[in-house]
Amino acid sequence: MSVHYTLNLRVFWPLVTGLCTALVCLYHVLRGSGGARAEPADGVDGGFPLLKVAVLLLLSYVLLRCRHAVRQRFLPGSPRLEGHAAFSSRHFREPGLSILLESYYEHEVRLSPHVLGHSKAHVSRIVGELVRAGRARGSPGLIPGGALALAFRGDFIQVGSAYEQHKIRRPDSFDVLVPLRLPPLVALEPRSLGEEPALAPAFRGCFLCALKAPPSPSGASGGHWLRDCKPFADAFCVDVRGRRHLSATLVLRWFQSHLQRSLATVRYSLEGRCRVTLTPGGLEQPPTLHILPCRTDYGCCRLSMAVRLIPAVHLGDGVFLVAPPPPPLPSAPLLELPEGLRAEALWGVNTARQEQKLLSWLQERAAPGACYLKCLQLLKALRDLGARGLDSAAATQWGRILSSYVLKTVLLAVLLRKGAPGQGWDEEHLGKCLEELVQFLRDCLLRRHTLFHCVLGPGGAAAEVGPLPKALREAAPVDLLAAFDGHARELAAARLLSTWQRLPQLLRAYGGPRYLARCPPPRSQRTQGFLEGDP
């Protein structure tokens, strides 16, 4: 994907002013050290021209900031000009919204491509060394016959918004899949739980992985296979309905301990570049690798980063089963699992490769200058603005419902319904495109539309992303919002509408430079429209 660089005036003008001031000071120091030999003729002040240039640059910077402040405070649709009129979706077609969105995007949302590139390269180097060390260590246990137990495959796969060009704000968190290598004596038979009767909706996207004997030309009997793989089954499997299944919990526990041993191997070699620590995630979260800048590191991108290392089992065609599965909601406790199922045997599915192919497919067919990824970034920023003022529990529920994956699926669903981003997705229609995404998301929350997983859904995007493993082709459609009850969805839809209606005021209050005057809406407007319908 193409990357566009823009000049950041907040950095450029202070930098130029500081450099000119430093030149003036350096000139006066050199002039003073020159003594009588450097004495100018009477009436001539050699430092005046440089000083005048520095003052003019400083005045230019102040004038630009004043112009930006005036534009922020007196845009069309501003409360100062329209008497605090109630906001409706029609205001988003006015030219003033585009200026507000652009300003907020530049100051609060957009990531520097330079910093993001350095961060991704740094993460790739550190994780690469750690994974190679883990592969070299192998596994402490052996299966009879000389076949290794679980081990690192030796590569890693970078997934998530940072690698799909729609991450916002700071490049300080990343997701990395670490594929695992199964022993040659073991093959897996994955199965989706989507058709499982009496299963809570929160678990319909999970998978089970039964063990089976790999195809063998020698025709070895099943009894010999069970006896040979018994050490592996005892260490990494649980019984589900009378059959051995690979346990996500046991694999995650082994993965975390193996990572700790591998980190101890490479920690000394990393000391000169950064400080690295590993935080275990327990049985509900994958471990997190914290990369802290070294005190002697004088690089331009000294950021502290958190990298989630997710153990993954390859199913084929770029699809992975990951441990642990997405955490269940409080409304769907593990006690709701049908009889015979065990929570430690549940796996999640990761289709990041297919989603990246789908985004590339859309980009190839998009009109020049299409802003659909920018709309997705602004939709995430809108979600974050809507979380302001909520208590901890409500903010957590809001973030669960409007997760980044849900918002990305909303964008893909809207674009796939149209075939590709056309002329209506250019920069001139940024506000209108964002409005379309918000409206579709609200309809999904109110059950007017169903938000299916973009790969597991009916029809999905299989033709665009290429072949899929049999387990995914036969999987039932997964509704990403089915796990939330109607009341929670209605509250989220109302909050989304309220945030949308107050967006100009929120952008003025929280966007732009921190020293600009704020223009919050009056108290009456802050509560207006929370449960209103469409205008």
UniProtKB/TrEMBL annotation:
<dbReference type="Pfam" id="PF20266">
    <property type="entry name" value="Mab-21_C"/>
</dbReference>
<keyword id="KW-0472">Membrane</keyword>
<dbReference type="GO" id="GO:0016020">
    <property type="term" value="C:membrane"/>
</dbReference>
<keyword id="KW-0732">Signal</keyword>
<feature type="transmembrane region" description="Helical">
    <location>
        <begin position="48"/>
        <end position="64"/>
    </location>
</feature>
<dbReference type="InterPro" id="IPR046906">
    <property type="entry name" value="Mab-21_HhH/H2TH-like"/>
</dbReference>
<protein>
    <submittedName>
        <fullName>ITPRIP like 2</fullName>
    </submittedName>
</protein>
<keyword id="KW-1133">Transmembrane helix</keyword>
<feature type="domain" description="Mab-21-like HhH/H2TH-like">
    <location>
        <begin position="372"/>
        <end position="452"/>
    </location>
</feature>
<keyword id="KW-0812">Transmembrane</keyword>
<dbReference type="InterPro" id="IPR024810">
    <property type="entry name" value="MAB21L/cGLR"/>
</dbReference>
<comment type="similarity">
    <text>Belongs to the ITPRIP family.</text>
</comment>
<dbReference type="InterPro" id="IPR026250">
    <property type="entry name" value="ITPRIP-like"/>
</dbReference>
